[in-house]
Design goal:
Metallo-beta-lactamase, Chain A, seven-stranded mixed beta sheet, 13 strands
Length: about 290
C-alpha cells in the first residue's frame, strides 16, 4: 500500500500561488504533494484524480492489472474522467474493464453527465470507455458490506458535501491479510450514524484527511484542520473505532495554513493521543 498523492485539490506547490508553503515546496521538491491517491495494491486504488498518470510515473507504479477503483466522491481532485480514456489507449489490456465503486448519488451525477454529453461528444476517449463498458459503474449501498476480489468493503457517509444531492463516502476495508483500514477522506467531523456503524471495530490502520492544518476558521463539517483531527481521534477512541495499536496517518493537506510538514508532525507528536504520521507522497504502508 502506498500514498501516491497527499495533497488537497490545489496540490503543493499550487501552480498559481506564491505563499511561503508553496515557495518552500518549489525550492525543495521532496515537499511536493500530488493530489490525493491511495494504492491498496496494483489491482485496487482509492480515487482516480488528475495526478494519477504523474504519480504512477514518479513512483514507478504499473496499473496495467488494475481491476477496481473505490471513489470517495466526484470532486475534480478525486475523479478525473480523462483517466478513463487512458484505459482504451493501452496496447496490452485489450478492453479489459475496470470496475468503479461509488455512491448512488455519485453514480447519478456521472450518469447524468454522460447522458447530457450525448452524440456530439462521442469522440471523447472517456465517453468511449463508458460506452464500451471498459469502465463499469457499481453504486454501493451505505452500511451494507460487500466483497470485491478478496477485500471486504463497508461504506459510510461523511459530512463533506459535493452538491445538493451528493456527499462523499469513506471506505472501511478488511484486507486479504485480515487487517482493517479506514480511508477517511474527504470528510469533516463524522456524522453520528457513521460513528455508530464503526463503533467497536478496533481498526488497524486509519488514514484520515487533515486539510487545513493550523487554521481554526474553516468549516469542519467539510474538511478537518489539525484540532478537528484530534477531536475526531478522541471520538474514535471513545467508541473503540481505534485503539492504542491503530496506525494513524494524516493526508489530503493543503497550503492554506501555517504548518509545513515538520511543523504539522510536531503538532501531532505533542498533542495526539496516539502516534500520527503526517504522510508524504510515496510513503509505503506496511
Amino acid at each position: 500500500m502506498q500514498f501516491l498523492g497527499t495533497a488537497a485539490a490545489d496540490a503543493m506547490p499550487g501552480p498559481f500561488c506564491e505563499c511561503w508553503i508553496c515557495q518552500e515546496a518549489r525550492r525543495e521538491p521532496a515537499r511536493n504533494r500530488l493530489r490525493s491517491l491511495f494504492l491498496l495494491d496494483e489491482e485496487n486504488i482509492i480515487d482516480c484524480g488528475p495526478d494519477l498518470a504523474a504519480a504512477c510515473m514518479k513512483w514507478q507504479v504499473n496499473l496495467s492489472s488494475l481491476k477496481n477503483i473505490f471513489l470517495t466522491h466526484t470532486h475534480e481532485d478525486h475523479l478525473c474522467v480523462s483517466n478513463a480514456g487512458l484505459l482504451i489507449m493501452s496496447r496490452t489490456r485489450a478492453g479489459v474493464p475496470v470496475d468503479l465503486y461509488l455512491s448512488h448519488e455519485a453514480y447519478e451525477t456521472l450518469s447524468d453527465s454522460h447522458e447530457r454529453l450525448g452524440s456530439p461528444y462521442a469522440h471523447l476517449d472517456a465517453v468511449k470507455s463508458v460506452d464500451r463498458a471498459v469502465v463499469r459503474f457499481h453504486p454501493v449501498t451505505l452500511f451494507q458490506p460487500f466483497t470485491v476480489d478478496g477485500y471486504q468493503v463497508f461504506a459510510v457517509p461523511t459530512t463533506h458535501h459535493v452538491s445538493e444531492r451528493e456527499r462523499a463516502i469513506n471506505y472501511l476495508f478488511t484486507l486479504p491479510d485480515g487487517r482493517t483500514l479506514l480511508y477517511a477522506c474527504d470528510t469533516g467531523i463524522y456524522p453520528s450514524e457513521s460513528v455508530e456503524a464503526l463503533a467497536g471495530r478496533a481498526i488497524d490502520i486509519l488514514i484520515m484527511e487533515a486539510t487545513f492544518g493550523s487554521r481554526t476558521d474553516n468549516d469542519i463539517t467539510s474538511h478537518l484542520n489539525a484540532t478537528a483531527f484530534l477531536r475526531q481521534l478522541d471520538t474514535f477512541g471513545a467508541r473503540a473505532i481505534i485503539t492504542e495499536r491503530t496506525k494513524v496517518y494524516a493526508t489530503h493537506i493543503n497550503h492554506k495554513h501555517e504548518f509545513n510538514h515538520e511543523q504539522y508532525q510536531a503538532f501531532f507528536d505533542e498533542r495526539a493521543p496516539l502516534p500520527v504520521v503526517v504522510a508524504c507522497d510515496g510513503l509505503m504502508v506496511d
